[in-house]
């Protein structure tokens, strides 16, 4: 199953969030480049790195942002694992990855939480790596 299929299954409530994260980590996604760095946005106190499953998804994003359809966008193909394990920690603040954000029914956020990003930058673990929860024993990671 490809990443977009995992995302669709999780969004439908029938998928496995851990398998989706694993597939994201193994998949090369397209990350738009702007001003010498990866394109990001701030939302909810988190810096989100934009990533796309294919050129069509990136084109829909560009169009939604008002870009001329003939305008070329520079992008890099980056493994999801590199985004989560290297780029997110380098942000120096809470950060995650937003995939296919222009696709209302196909987008997925990979937030800075335990099980997705390294514990040292996860916002749901303390400085000792202990989960900061509200006392329930829910599964940690994607889909929460």
Which key phrases capture this entry?
single chain; about 140 residues; alpha+beta; three-stranded antiparallel β-sheet; 4 helices; about 30% helix
Tell me what you see in this structure.
- Helix 2 crosses helix 4 (about 80-90).
- The two termini are about 20 Å apart.
- The radius of gyration is 15 Å and the shape is globular.
- The chain is about 30% helix and about 20% strand.
- A 4-stranded mixed sheet has the order 3-4-6-7, with helices on one face.
- It is built from 4 helices and 7 strands, in the order ααββββαβαββ.
- It has helices spanning about 5-10, 15-25, 55-65, 80-90, and strands spanning about 30-35, 35-40, 40-45, 45-50, 75-80, 95-100, 110.
- It has about 140 residues and is α+β, with helices and mostly antiparallel strands.
Q: What shape does the CA trace take? A: globular
Radius of gyration: 15 Å
- Could you state the order of secondary-structure elements as H and E? HHEEEEHEHEE
Output the structural class: alpha+beta
Number of helices: 4
Note the gap between the termini: 22 Å
What value does the average pLDDT take? 89
Looking across the biggest beta sheet, what order are the strands in? 3-4-6-7
Helix content: 25-40%
Number of strands: 7
Strand content: 15-25%
Low-confidence stretches: 134-144
Q: Characterize the largest beta sheet: strand count, sense, and whether it forms a barrel.
A: 4 strands, mixed
